[in-house]
Amino acid sequence: MRMEKVNIKWEELGFDAIQTRSMFKATCSIDGKWSGGSLVPYGNIELSPAAGVLNYGQGVFEGTKAFHTSKDNIVLFRIDRNAKRMAWSTKRLCIPEMNPEFFKNAVVATLKDNFDYVPPYGKGSMYIRPIVWGTAPALGVRAVSEYTFMVFLSPVGSYFKAGVRPLNLKVETDYHRAAPRGIGNAKAIGNYSASLYPLTMAKKEGFDEVIYLDANNENQIEELGSANLFIVKDGIVKTPKLSGSILDGVTRNSVCKIASELLKLKVFETDVTINELIKSDEVFCTGTAVVVTPVGKITYNNEVYEINKNQPGPIAAKCKELLSAIQRQEIDDPFGWIKPVIKGS
Ligand SMILES: *Cc1c(COP(=O)(O)O)cnc(C)c1O
Fold first, then answer.
1. Residues 148 and 204 in one domain
2. Per-residue pLDDT tens for 281-296?
């Protein structure tokens, strides 16, 4: 039996929030444990103007995807890693630490109830957004007494409007994304508000995104506002090591494994300098939303450097192809990354 779908123009999907049937909602007090919760109709929520999240940014989120696969299943990809990261992010922001099982059950329940909104095989994917924040009021700075967790989702196409064109990036020399020992390695909402101004300025200048430098050593690169970064030189793959201010991306880790174990390349999580970056044979970025996207141009101190003649490189292409093929069950999943949630035929 083929799964019936709702009436959405799958070919025209971009990366915007589309309303679906339902969302998951649970609450927890500061000294309680996450449990229970239920599906509620998708819709707006009410909040006190003094809510912790509005006044002091006490909120974190996750991002993962479900796929309708070539075997007609609906599957999740490495949801355990998102669950673990959510546990870390909540702890770091003084939100009751979220139990990974509770997190996974909520994601699965939301996905099952909205299965007919998952784009058909070959037509995009279902972006899943778990989010948790301080709901109770606070006037003085402190961790508030009540928290709300929700999971909503949206069918999506590709993240960058450009489609397959390599990205045009700028090395950001005026602003940092994250401070050493700050919250850069948590998926905290404040990290993204901090990146909006540099991103908006860069977009005005015609760039797609910015590359942030290490605040401790401005000769070294870290990542983009919402994606990790890789370089390739003479067949060797490098990505900045997890220093505490870089987000530990699920896609980053998956690409490292694919490159080393399937493509048999040398992969190093290490320091990466700007000099190495601009002399690379290939540069690409990774993330749940952007998957694997090649970079064709990098501007640093007003100098423009072309990477691989502004063409997508072969290693990025191979990593993307293998990652997508595993996610869509077109090839075997040698790593045990796929979790079927709804079985098709
Ligand atoms: C979410 C995110 C990434 C990518 O992580 P994935 O788990 O691969 O989606 C990279 N950098 C930042 C800053 C992020 O917020």
1. no
2. 999 999 999 999 999 9
